[in-house]
Write a structure and sequence with these properties.
73% helix; 0% strand; 2 domains; 19 helices
Length: 419
């Protein structure tokens, strides 16, 4: 009997290997996004290699491009490419922009690759494991130096970017709250474990992380979760409970009090000291972005054009000659998109956030109810920072969105990770 593998056998084996490698890459992305940029990038490489080797290109590409929740990611990236046609940005800035926004394509790639409940479950476990390591490292850094951490007094944790760290822990808080809510009816002990983990993450964001954006974003996400998750007759009570919780936090957290008191102080000194304060620089940058939009309201000044225009026309106003951080991006994804891609870009950005939430809300799997609070959180955060423009912040959005859409696409075979 001839047992020599045929060409079709070798192709099938290669595709199976590719699928395994690709799915392992997605698991690595979920694990490393809050911990290591190098680990995340290596995992992305594995995902891309696996996607290519897994074959079935026609069906995968069709799913990635035409899926009712993933097409806005492709469309936004295409709009970024269109913006290259009329930008005055430098070649280096164009390359940087392509590197940043090409990452949006990871969402449809993950959606079109993950087709197995076991791998989806592993990816979710990796998501929570990575966030848990980040959370534990933050608490440990209060007492001992953490290898690879910032080890800055008053600014604990792993991320070089404290804002990204706060955003990842805010996502963990929402995820744990969702898991506790779903487990309560059938596994109350499990629900209490999720609730305790979520409470620890909330305390980390509100009492130890010095960034205002994630604090506001988390409050918004919890309010949306309370409204969506509660039965209609209990919605007011649920939202009131979240408001009461935030009031307790605001009255007891010196970090929250100090950071938001600083906002008031910086607004009062805007006219005399605007270029030397965080709030002042943001307001000046947003005003400059609005002027750029007014100069080209439909299409904007082009991909990467904000930085070029800021240094060319707004150096005295923004302090670009002394290294002002808002000259690279105005610390608002909406202001940046409006300036560079105009009204068309803002519509595409809103579609990027709204369309997946709308599709997820129509699915029967409970994971669909998590997407609206998460996206709401990220939208609020993006009002005050460059959400998609900053890699470590975009990673949070890309991973959570990719896993959620993959989960809902294959909901008939998925078992939630608390099972």
């Amino acid at each position: 009997m001839n047992t020599t593998p045929t060409g079709s056998d070798r192709t099938a084996s290669l595709r199976a290997l590719g699928y395994t490698v690709g799915c392992a890459g997605v698991v690595g992305m979920a694990l490393f996004f809050p911990l290591s940029r190098a680990g995340f990038n290596i995992s992305v490489l594995l995902m891309l290699i696996g996607w290519v080797l897994a074959g079935q290109y026609a069906s995968r590409l069709k799913l990635a491009v035409t899926h009712p929740a993933s097409w806005p990611f492709v469309a936004y990236f295409l709009l970024v490419l269109v913006g290259l046609a009329y930008t005055d940005a430098s070649g280096d800035e164009v390359t940087r922009q392509l590197s940043i926004y090409s990452k949006l394509l990871y969402v449809p790639l993950v959606l079109s690759l993950l087709q197995d409940a076991v791998w989806i479950r592993r990816a979710w476990w990796a998501f929570y494991a990575g966030c848990l390591v980040l959370l534990l490292s933050l608490y440990a850094s209060l007492y001992v130096p953490i290898p690879g951490g910032r080890n800055i007094p008053g600014d604990p944790g792993v991320f070089n970017n404290a804002i990204s760290q706060g955003l990842a822990l805010a996502a963990l808080t929402l995820g744990c709250a969702h898991m506790a809510w779903q487990a309560w009816a059938r596994q109350q002990r499990v629900a209490w474990v999720w609730a305790a983990l979520g409470a620890a993450a909330l305390v980390a964001v509100m009492y130890f992380n010095p960034s205002r954006g994630p604090q506001l974003a988390l409050a918004a996400g919890l309010l949306i979760m309370a409204w969506i998750g509660a039965k209609p007759r209990w919605r007011v009570v649920a939202v009131g409970g979240v408001v009461a919780l935030m009031a307790v936090v605001a009255s007891s957290s010196t970090v929250v009090q100090n950071r938001f008191a600083l906002v008031t102080q910086e607004i009062k000194t805007l006219d005399t000291n605007g270029k030397n304060t965080s709030v002042g620089l943001r307001l000046l940058a947003w005003h400059s972005a609005a002027e750029m939009w007014q100069s080209s309201p439909v299409w904007g000044v082009g991909t990467g054009g904000f930085k070029h225009t800021a240094y060319r026309d707004y150096t005295p106003k923004l302090g670009c000659d002394v290294g002002s951080p808002v000259c690279d991006q105005p610390h608002s994804q909406f202001a940046l998109t409006g300036a560079e891609l105009g009204t068309v870009g803002l519509i595409a950005l809103l579609a990027l956030f709204w369309v997946p939430v709308r599709w997820a809300s129509r699915q029967s799997h409970p994971q669909g109810r998590w997407l609206a609070p998460f996206v709401g959180m990220f939208v609020v955060h993006s009002l005050f920072d460059g959400g998609l423009e900053i890699n470590s912040q975009a990673f949070v959005f890309i991973v959570a969105m990719g896993l959620t859409l993959a989960t809902l696409q294959h909901q008939q075979t998925l078992t939630p990770p608390d099972a």
